[in-house]
Write a structure and sequence with these properties.
The complex is a heterodimer of chains A (about 35) and B (about 230). Chain A has two helices and one strand. The longest helix of chain B is centred in the C-terminal third of the chain and has 17 residues. Classes of the chains: A mainly alpha (about 35), B alpha/beta (about 230). The interface between A and B is medium-sized, with 26 and 43 residues.
Chain lengths: ~35, ~230
């Protein structure tokens, strides 16, 4: 679980790139064989 | 028998990414994500939670609990061919966390944007007097005014001012709709305090991994999961 703290309820609208980056980071960290986390 | 949930999909390849909206809005809150680059890498799925947008309440039910919303989310991802990434905003984040507790094997990971949760089960979510103020405002100026006060408090005045007018008007309308569908046996005060009846146990999520993308602390009270009636 990634908790975006203090970023504001409108994060996805105000900072779509940051939101997309968070999704990509989570996908990479949870990819099969990944040791990130 | 409930009506099907209204679901919006974008993208045909990649892992499933399910977006869960917060209170006083619907799947359109994810318009930027649905139209942006994410569908090139993910199968993006947004939906109107029960009672929002084009997903009507169950007959005779004025509002739905977090557990009910989570059950529907789990059902939505159960048919996918691989575990999904979930992202929820505000109340949607609470729904996502509850889904994580219910079906961890179906969830690859989750993003929770400001879930309105108290630091502990013994801590009040709302500041003293806030709910009473909303009740007074709803009685004096109507549920739309109370809905606006709720959102201005949760989002902050600057974010509220930036919202397109159609979103502001929809928020006010959601307050009126909640009032119109409230069951007579539901006291007004308890209807404005859904967290008192359906608040998931935060302690139960102690085992869920946590990673912040910001070093700043959460505000002590991000707001309840549902606009006032």
């Amino acid at each position: 679980v990634t908790t975006v703290a203090g970023a504001g309820h409108m994060l996805h609208a105000d900072a779509p790139r940051a939101f997309a980056d968070a999704v990509d980071a989570l996908a990479a960290a949870t990819a099969v064989g990944s040791t990130a986390g | 028998m409930s009506s099907p949930l209204h679901v919006v999909r974008a993208g045909t390849d990649g892992p499933p990414l399910v977006l869960v909206h917060g209170s006083a809005t619907d799947s359109s809150t994810w318009t930027i994500q649905l139209a942006g680059p994410l569908p090139r890498r993910y199968r993006v799925i947004a939906y109107d939670r029960r009672g929002a947008g084009r997903s009507p309440n169950r007959p005779g039910v004025a509002w739905h609990t977090i557990e009910e919303h989570a059950a529907e989310l789990v059902a939505l991802i159960a048919d996918l061919d691989e575990p999904a990434i979930l992202a929820g905003s505000s109340c949607g984040a609470v729904v996502v966390l509850e889904a994580c507790r219910r079906a961890p094997g179906r969830i690859r990971g989750a993003i929770a944007i400001e879930p309105p949760l108290a630091p502990s089960d013994d801590t009040s979510l709302a500041p003293l007097g806030f709910v009473a103020d909303l009740d007074r405002l709803a009685a004096a100026d109507g549920p739309g005014a109370a809905a606006q006060r709720f959102l201005v408090t949760v989002l902050g005045e600057a974010a509220w001012a930036r919202l397109p007018r159609m979103y502001q008007e929809r928020a006010a309308a959601s307050g009126r709709r909640s009032a119109a569908t409230a069951t007579p046996s539901t006291p007004t005060a308890s209807a404005t305090r859904p967290w008192a009846r359906s608040r998931p146990r935060s302690a139960s999520w102690a085992g869920i991994g946590r990673r912040r993308t910001s070093g700043r602390r959460s505000r002590p009270w991000p707001g309840p999961c549902r606009p006032p009636p």
